[in-house]
Amino acid sequence: MKQAIVARRDLGMGEGKLAAQVAHASLSAYEDTGRRTRKEWKGSGQKKVVLGVDSEHRLFELADKADTEGIPYAIIRDAGHTELEPGTVTALAVGPASDDLVDRVTGDLSLY
Amino acid sequence: MKQAIVARRDLGMGEGKLAAQVAHASLSAYEDTGRRTRKEWKGSGQKKVVLGVDSEHRLFELADKADTEGIPYAIIRDAGHTELEPGTVTALAVGPASDDLVDRVTGDLSLY
């Protein structure tokens, strides 16, 4: 079981900003996940991997793929109080789900 | 309402590693939070701030303070598969709770 969180490298987010966006995405997708899957994931150590992409377009493609595969996912837009323009899409969380299922969506991406 | 996540600067974690630890901490403290407070926090945009400290000792001091104030919190230890020694304490999440309450614990810290 794992959850993949994909963040945009092209925005040049600071470390703390990136971490907050990843946490938003992680929690949001988790909340859309069924009780049993959540329990399994937590029981196995709530594994998370943080991956990177270089465009908004790519994030939406991955979200579509997660949707097609029936995996819970969440897209995060920044409120824009600080570094970014309001509404900027920053991150996508995919899962928790089985490793295989998550890899069907994010298996080609590199670590952030 | 907000949640503060405090991470150790002295470990030299990579960006993705840091983000994953912050997300762990955020989710863990959230799960220890009462239903009503969770709902309020989410309804107000689930504000998160990521702060930094320079030692494990300081993280534990802050956790004690959160405990005394009766705020939900979670300390994260890394499983140590990659960058860090197994069991290394990496992050602490405080809240969600009211801004005032969280500031009593983390008000003196700077952004990560």
The main pleated sheet of chain A reads as: 5 strands, mixed
- CATH topology descriptor of chain A: Bit1
Order of helices and strands of chain A: EHHEHEEHE
- N- and C-termini, Cα separation of chain A: 20 Å
> In oligomeric terms, what are we looking at?
homodimer
Helix/strand-derived class of chain A?
Answer: alpha+beta
The overall strand count of chain A is: 5
CATH architecture of chain A: 3-Layer(aba) Sandwich
Calculate the mean pLDDT score of chain A and round it: 94
Q: Please give the count of helices of chain A.
A: 4
**Helical percentage of chain A:** 40-55%
CATH class term of chain A: Alpha Beta
Uncertain segments of chain A: none
What fraction strand of chain A? 25-35%
Count of the domains of chain A: 1
The CATH superfamily of chain A bears the name: Bit1
Please state how the strands of the largest beta sheet of chain A are arranged side by side: 3-4-1-2-5
Most extensive interface between two protein chains, with residue counts: A-B, 24 and 24 residues
Query: Outline of chain A, from the CA principal axes?
Result: globular
Describe this structure in words.
By secondary structure, chain A is α+β, with helices and mostly antiparallel strands. The first copy, chain A, has one domain (2-106): 3-Layer(aba) Sandwich (Bit1), CATH 3.40.1490. Chain A is 43% helix and 26% strand. The first copy, chain A, has four helices and five strands. Chain A has helices at 15-31, 35-43, 56-69, 99-106; strands spanning 2-8, 48-53, 73-77, 89-97, 110-111. The first copy, chain A, has a five-stranded mixed β-sheet with strand order 3-4-1-2-5, sandwiched between helices. In chain A, helix 3 (56-69) packs antiparallel against helix 4 (99-106). The two termini of chain A are 20 Å apart. The mean pLDDT of chain A is 94. Chain A binds chain B through residues 5, 7, 15-20, 22-24, 26-27, 30, 45-46, 48-52, 79, 111-112, and chain B through 5, 7, 15-20, 22-24, 26-27, 30, 45-46, 48-52, 79, 111-112. Chains A, B: It is found in: Cytoplasm. Chains A, B: It catalyses: an N-acyl-L-alpha-aminoacyl-tRNA + H2O = an N-acyl-L-amino acid + a tRNA + H(+). Chains A, B: It comes from Halorubrum rubrum. Chains A, B: Belongs to the PTH2 family. Chains A, B: This is Peptidyl-tRNA hydrolase.
